[in-house]
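I would love for you to help me understand the pair of lines that follows before we discuss the fold together.
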Amino acid sequence: MILVHTPEHSFYIDPYETSELAPGDYFSIRNQMPLINVSAQEAEQICKQQSKRLCNIYEWTNACLGTHRFRYSYGQSYKETNCNAQTDAIARTGARSECHNDTGLHDMIGNAMEWVRDSRSGMVVAKGGSYITGAEADCFTTFYFPPEIRHNQIGFRCCHSAAESRTRPGNTRNITPPASDTTAENRDDTSEQSDAAESAQPDESANDNPIDGGENTTTENNESSIDNDQGDNQ
């Protein structure tokens, strides 16, 4: 896992999206198909089985931005070939060698959207966009869904509070944002916001368009998109 320091707290985050190598065996490793079609509640339970938890929205966004605070994790400008964000199918973890930030987090942009915790809303939240989101797939893009939804474009990765003692699998690296960082100020102010899509009843079977099941909000220079929800840091 990768260690992230923020002004509020420190936490660990998985380097890749969660995969299920065998029934009940969950890993965050390269060259595996992300586990999708699970609800946010199911994702939370899978994280708990590993003595972890689902990342909250503040943690996920800060981890995605990395130490350079790049909008697209890998840089400030969208590059179609860097991540699996403009194709017709999900890919194995780490398949795009350029789709990582400076701290070693992979596939935060595109591939599978990722469930995160956000206790401020009555909906469940997915971050990062999927393999069809295109240039809108960045560290700030947020989709809201009804709690029961499962989707073939949504997976997850797990976090763990650094204050809690546990055996941490894999390598650990430090992410310490610059002291003067204001996060949202590094957004490209000339980019257009996405209109919020009209929410519809989700199809619990495989869906082809995540916007059909949820509402997309891309917050431009709005620090509320990464406000820390202290209730999630457990």
Remarks:
- The longest helix spans residues 40-49.
- Confidence is low (pLDDT under 50) at residues 165-211, 219-234.
